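haha ok so turns out i had the wrong file open the whole time. this is the CORRECT one, sorry everyone. sequence first:
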Amino acid sequence: METSETKEVVTKWYSIREAAEYLGVAEPTIYRWMRDGEITFRKVGDSTRFWKADLDEVMEVHPSARGLDKIRTFCPSCHHDELIEGHVQSTGLLYFRPKHIKFWTLKDSNVGTTARMCTRCGAITWGGDTTKLAKLLAGSKKGERVNTTS
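then structure:
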């Protein structure tokens, strides 16, 4: 019979040298990022330390168009893959309306949105209908009214 033990989550601390190795950059780059406020760090006495999450935040992701749907399935905060889809709502549905787009009715210029909440950390990601936005932008450049109903 197994006994239940409480396992402590141990966060690995990275030194400046380890952080530079992990990111594949030179140590002076780490110092410059610290000075410029581009990387989060912690002081433990006189020692400077980083968490892995701090180092991962420094990396910028430039996804391909094919990878966008896959990216939308992960929490941007904790990278958990269980997201519940829903809507952000006030007294009605919230819409995104491009700033300089003019139509006969405001309803035509609304871009529908969807929201997903992470079941682990509760972070909410909010995305819009990029197909409809592209139609709006294309129509506004031509100066014509666009039929955006799908």
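The two ends are 59 Å apart (CA to CA).
again sry for the mixup
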